[in-house]
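Table S2 (continued). Query chain:
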Amino acid sequence: LSPCWKKRMISIKSQIISLMSTSMSFTASSGSWTLTTTSSSTPRIWPGTTTT
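Corresponding output:
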């Protein structure tokens, strides 16, 4: 494994951890996940597919 790829995996892992500690709400109208954190006042919208 190249160090660059390893670094990316670590960053992805930390992102997943931060997402898990984030309150999630799914809006069916826009079809995207709206993530609101206690630290930031502006919600981050991630384009996502509808989950079954």
